[in-house]
Every structure is written in structure tokens, then in C-alpha cells.
Automatic annotation (TrEMBL):
Organism: Actinopolymorpha pittospori
Residues of the full protein shown: 1 to 218 of 323
Keyword Transport: yes
ABC transporter domain boundaries: 2-218
Protein name, UniProt field: ABC-2 type transport system ATP-binding protein
Family stated for the protein in its record: Belongs to the ABC transporter superfamily.
UniProt keyword annotations, A-Z: ATP-binding, Nucleotide-binding, Transport
């Protein structure tokens, strides 16, 4: 599970995340909704140990990321699909990740099939479209078969088929009992994907509500 407790991050005069508190329990999909600049990426980066909180804490399974004994088995993340570059093949990229993280090599084939990239596994990532990079990023996130998954704006720039595919994947991961947090600035998309919404603006919590409740109120 995920626990964000009074989390704050300042960059000079900018308060990116401002005293944010929420938890996400296993099962279902939680949408992390808010306009660009609301602090969603910064929150996820802190949960992943990629940025240090100014104060407060972000915990995965009750621990700070740095204290997790087997991080890739506990939490997987898709932050920026374009971050996977290079002349290597998708297969090499995932094999290397598996080896350096002591993940059984058989998982590589499993996740490549899961994301629909088995047929292009030997092609260089350099030639991949955004949608293919997105799938590869998701394959990497799933490699350790983690119970907690963070997806930062996964549908950005995808065509309608890609958007639908990601929606179904997130819903099935949630239905398997994993803890799924997905950020987006698109209310309409989150209504279709998530059961619950944690809504943020200017780094602060605006609402924490189930999608059904929201539909009844508006
Ligand atoms: P979101 O993911 O909701 O779009 P971000 O977490 O990316 O929001 O950004 C929140 C705020 O923090 C923005 O004003 C952004 O410019 C600022 N910010 C994020 N990362 C940094 C950084 N490394 N240095 C300075 N400012 C940052
Ligand atoms: P930390 O918050 O842990 O100190 P850094 O300040 O090193 O992290 O920033 C992390 C990344 O965010 C850097 O690659 C930096 O270039 C990028 N960054 C810097 N300013 C901004 C900004 N205004 N909005 C978003 N990202 C930014």
C-alpha cells in the first residue's frame, strides 16, 4: 500500500507539494487527478526515492523507498516513457533490468507478452513509437511483479486504442489486488479508469472521493 503523510516539497520559492496526506490500499485503481503543475509527478518521485521531501514522508508498504529490501518486487513505476532510449533492443533493455535486480529471466518473456511487444522484442527501442515506448515502460514496471504500481500520466500522447489498452490493463492490475495509483489531468479518462479519485491542486489535497460518489453529486 501507499501512505503519503503530510508530504511537502519546496523548490526555492515554489511549493510543489504542500502538506499532502492520503493512502492507497490494495485492490482497484486510484486516480491522482489535477491540472499540470499540481504536484503529482513530484509526489510520485518522492515515493520512489527520486526526490527528497522537504518535510513529511511518502511510504510504500510502510517503508521509505530507500529502506525497501527488494524495491522492484515491491513497487513498479512508469514515469516518463521517453526516458527509455538507446540503440538497445527491448529484450536487451528488460534482460539487463532483470539481471541487475535479481529477477528471474523468465519474467522478461512474460511481461513482453503482457504488453504486446513480444513480436518486436529484438527491434531497437530507438525506432519505437511513443505507444511502444509506453508499453516497454510498463513492461519494466511489471518486471518484478510488484504489488504497488505508480503510473504518471500514462495515456498522454496515445491514440484511442492505446488509451483503451492502458485503461483495461490498469483495471485488471487493480482487480488482481494490486495497489494502483495513476496520475492524470483528464477527469473524463479517470472516471472511466479509477474507482477512487485523489484530487490535487497547487500541491494540496482538494478532494478524496469514490468515482460513484462524485457521479451522484454532480
Ligand atoms: P504535475 O505532475 O502535477 O504536473 P509537478 O510535480 O511536475 O506537477 O510540478 C509541481 C510544481 O513543482 C510545478 O510548479 C513545477 O514547475 C515544480 N517543480 C517540479 N520539479 C521541480 C524541480 N526539480 N525543480 C524546480 N521546480 C520543480
Ligand atoms: P530533487 O528535488 O530531489 O533535488 P532535482 O532538483 O535534482 O531533484 O530535480 C530533478 C529533475 O527535475 C532534474 O532533472 C531537473 O532538471 C528537473 N527540473 C528542474 N526544474 C524543473 C521544473 N521547474 N519543473 C520540472 N522539472 C524540473
Amino acid at each position: 500500500m501507499i501512505d503519503v503523510r503530510q508530504l511537502t516539497k519546496r523548490y526555492g520559492g515554489t511549493v510543489a507539494v504542500d502538506d499532502l496526506t492520503f493512502s492507497v490500499r490494495p485492490g482497484g485503481v486510484t486516480g491522482f487527478l489535477g491540472p499540470n503543475g499540481a504536484g503529482k509527478s513530484t509526489t510520485m518521485r518522492m515515493l520512489l526515492g527520486l526526490a527528497a521531501p522537504t518535510s513529511g514522508e511518502g511510504l510504500v508498504n510502510g517503508q521509505r523507498y530507500a529502506a525497501l529490501r527488494d524495491p522492484m518486487h515491491e513497487v513498479g513505476a512508469l514515469l516518463d516513457a521517453n526516458a527509455v532510449h538507446g540503440g538497445r533492443s527491448a529484450l536487451d533493455h528488460l534482460r539487463c533490468l532483470a539481471l541487475t535486480n535479481r529477477i528471474g529471466i523468465g519474467r522478461v518473456t512474460t511481461v513482453l507478452e503482457q504488453v504486446g511487444l513480444a513480436g518486436v522484442a529484438r527491434k531497437r527501442v530507438k525506432g519505437f513509437s511513443l505507444g511502444m515506448r509506453q508499453r516497454l515502460g510498463i513492461a519494466a514496471a511489471l518486471l518484478g511483479d510488484p504489488g504497488v504500481l505508480l503510473f504518471d500520466e500514462p495515456v498522454n500522447g496515445l491514440d484511442p486504442d492505446g488509451v483503451r489498452w492502458i485503461r483495461e490493463l490498469l483495471r485488471s492490475l487493480g482487480a488482481e489486488g494490486r495497489t494502483v495509483l495513476v496520475s492524470s489531468h483528464l477527469m473524463s479518462e479517470m472516471e472511466l479508469t479509477a474507482d477512487r479519485l485523489v484530487i490535487v491542486g497547487r500541491g494540496r489535497l482538494v478532494a478524496d472521493t469514490s468515482v460513484d460518489e462524485l457521479a451522484e453529486r454532480y
